[in-house]
Each structure stands twice: as structure tokens, then as C-alpha cells.
Amino acid sequence: MKIVVVGANHAGTACINTMLDNYKGNEVVVFDKNSNISFLGCGMALWIGGQIAGPEGLFYSSKEKLESKGAKIHLETEVYNIDFDKKIVYASGKNGEKYEETYDKLILSTGSLSINPDIPGKDLDNVQFVKLYQQAEDVINKLKERPEIKTVAVVGAGYIGVELAEAFKRWGKDVHLIDFCDECLSTYYDKPFRDKMDTQLMNNGVKLNYKQLVKEIKGNEQGKVQSIVTDKSEYQVDMVVLCIGFKPNSSLGKGKINTFRNGAYIVDKTQKTNIDDVYAIGDCATVYDNAIDDINYIALATNAVRSGIIAAHNVCGTKLESVGVQGSNGISIFGYNMVSTGLTLEKAQRLGIDALETTFHDLQKPEFMERNNEQVSIRIVYRKNDRVIIGAQIASKQDISMAIHVFSLAIQEKVTIDKFKLLDIFFLPHFNKPYNYITMAALNAK
Questions:
Q1: Is residue 286 left, alpha or beta, with left meaning phi > 0 and alpha meaning psi from -120 to 50?
Q2: Of these residues, 15, 42, 181, 243, which one is catalytic?
Q3: Lower CB count within 10 Å: N or C terminus of the chain?
Q4: 42 carries an active-site annotation
């Protein structure tokens, strides 16, 4: 077969590698408009904040690696049209080269785009987006070369915004974190957990400006950022970073491929779209969300990689279905760790789900373990009618990250809260308590 892949970042790279490693004899042709492959955006704030030596380790694949396995890779080449009836992909290279590539199977891995708000002044110098490697590099270069940048406004208090607020504080900058919502991380955590992270941010010097809508960015005579104006106030700043979210990059299939309410390609559990021989993977496509038993849009690199593997096998003739996802995620800011999976109580209620929660706070280890023993907070969300777990959140200065995986599996397998009451969890003072916070939260469930 001839297989054309449009887009070669996380989902695309996973898909290409799976096809080349497991199925010989196919012709794999790849188009990507970027100049690099496999940049781990999750490490971007670490790079900007100087917590890692440099960006080199944020790449795990390349044009050369994929071509050594037999793929034909066209970088800096943008696909501008697809004829789904004739099965032809039309692309244009940076030097004007034109491509008309036929295909037997097509895989769309076009990812997502930063939401670009219609704000006056957004084109001023020192107004930044941070999704691509080049964008992060530009921010770092400006911080190095422009000592006059002393105050930074980060617009958007989701995961990326909060991580960048930390990164700029590590540069010694004054940081304003601005969001229209009441607190940070509103998608992933209930209010008690959001409050903990807001406290952590404030204790480390980040100025929180919530319940505010950005109206304008003002510039000086040199065309550089001078201030940012919200519906509540005006802040004197030298750089503005816009990270208010992402949207699926799905224009190539417009009018042809069925889309979700936000524009993502709707796919089945094999990653197939409504068009025969056309698959969609990664941030441009939907996922099956086990917490709600329906399709959803959850843009995470982990979901992207799994979707690429699934599509590769199905395209090459091996039937493989997704087991669904829970949207498991985590964040660590100034040493405070938060992880979650599935639905928050607030999200469940907004969806009309009659849900309950059980919340528990305790030390990670017995009290006599006086060193490296931190407070842990856990919340488990479950449906009232059948008591099936649909979400969990855990927070601590301790590394409690691995505990969230058991709840991800519980949501996938529809385990009830009551099953956790007598779950066989080992005890050793070095690690946990005999009546640990997972057990106690379950025992206290109504």
C-alpha cells in the first residue's frame, strides 16, 4: 500500500514508527509544515525556566531516523488541499515545490493550533505564543538579550500558563497570571485543589489576576509591549504570553469529514473517520472518554501516541480498538504536585451526572516517620446510582503521581468506590500508612 501521513509530531511519529517497525513493504510518505519532528512541548516550560540544560533532549525522533526506516519525509511542506474522492494530497514546499501525492490510505495527524484571540495590540513586539520549538526559542532569546524585560503577563491559567508563570519567576521576573476564570486549572481540579495551587503560586511571588478579561495590549513608540488592559485594571508589563488554549487543526477535512462540536475529526475506536481509508489521530481527532462513555476532545500527548499506534495497526490490516481514555494528567509547580484523571465533581455536575465525592487528607507515611513526610489530599468522584468511580484528584509535595494510575484503570474498568474499601494495598512505613489515604477516602464514602 501507499500510505500518506499529514503531520509528524507525537501522534504522527508514533504511527509512522509502528507501521515501519511492524509492517514491511508499504510506501510511507509524510508531509509536515514544521522544520522539526517530535518536540516535547511538555518540557517547554522546563527549558524556558532553566530546569533542564537545553532543548536537545526534548526531541526523540527526526527526519533522518524515520527515513532510515524507509519513510519518505517532506518537512517544511504544507498540505493545502486533499481530494478525498480521487485520493490525492496536494502540498507545497518552502521553495515552491509542488506535490500531488496519491494514496491508498490517508492518516491525518495535523494536531492543534493556539487560539489566537482578537485582541488589539496582539501583533506588538514581545507578544508571544508558546507551542512550537521556535516559539519557545524566541522567548528564551528575548529574555537573554533584552534585560529591559522585567515584568511578564501570562494570559491563561491552564496547565501551560501555570507552568510558564513558574518558569518566568525562575528567571527572576515579576509575573502576572491573568484568567477569566475564578482560579487556575479549572478544567482538571475541583475548587479545594485549585485553591491549593493558587496558594502555591502566590507564596512563590506570582500575582494572580483572576475574573479578568483581557481587552487590549498597549505598546510604546518602539512598537514593544508596554501594558496589558483588562476589564478590571491595567498592568505595566514588558512581555505578554498568550496561552488561552488550543483548537483542532482540522481545516483540511472541512465539509467532508464529520466533526465534533469544537471542530475535531470524529473517529471510531480504530481512529477511522466517516470516509473510507481516512484516519485521524492526535489533537485533531476525538477520543473515547470512559468517564462519560462517549466521544470527547482531550488533547494530551499520551492520547496522541496511543491513537497513532492504534491507527497504524488498523491501516496495515490488524484490527485494534482503543480501550478509551480517562484524560490522566499531572502538574508540578515549585515542588507542589497535583494529578487527576476522569471527571471532577464540578464537571460531572455540569454534565448532569448525579455524582458524589469523598475527600481525605493525611500524611503520606506514619507520624513517626519524621523526615520527607508530607500532607496528601485525595478526592474520589463516583456516580451516586451505581457507585462507579468516574474521577480522582491527588495533591501533595510528596511524589504521589503513580497513585493516579489505579484510578485511571478503575474508571476504564468501571470499578465501584466500594471495591476500594478493602483493596489489598501493602504497608511499609518507608512508603505509606496501614490505613492510607486511598483506603480511608473509600471507607468514608457515603
A1: beta
A2: 42
A3: C
A4: yes
